[in-house]
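Now for today's protein:

——
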Amino acid sequence: MMMLAMALIIIGCGKNGKTTDGTEDGQGSSGTTKNAAVSDADRQSDEYIVSRVQSIYDDIFAEYNKANEDESTPTSSPDEKYCSDDWNKALQAVSDYDQQNHPDDIGFFEADYWVMGQDFGDLSVSDIQVVEHDGNKAKVQFDLHNDGEIIPVRLDLQFERGDWFIDDFYEIDHEYDWKKDMKEYVK
């Protein structure tokens, strides 16, 4: 079931998530989360970054948890909505490579980086902390809760299109760098 979810996520990366007003679903015209009260200066605060990561995971995990209850698969494309341009280019390169070289196999994605595993249930995040921040890049750590397991995660964030977007996922305990491994995979 998880592999089907990953396939749907990857396929969804190419879909047009435009609303009738031409903006991305849930986003303003600049690609940022709709929140007119937040200034660009406020978006640079650690508090805003923590809030942004929490809202990203709350949105995604609401769908994942609902899919788990319904015994179905998530259908949205969180990467397109919440990840950096460079992440999405790397993701597309993996998808293209797998379609060409492994059309009938799982390919690169044996697990889901959003849940740090193949299976998922009762998803949440806690203890979100900004550990590094330089204005255009930030590193955030938190605990990901997946079906009773606590998995330490680090995200690299990139400030682009007027907001913070995920540029890489790390599973800390196993020192697994998703973006680095994706780029090496397609070489």
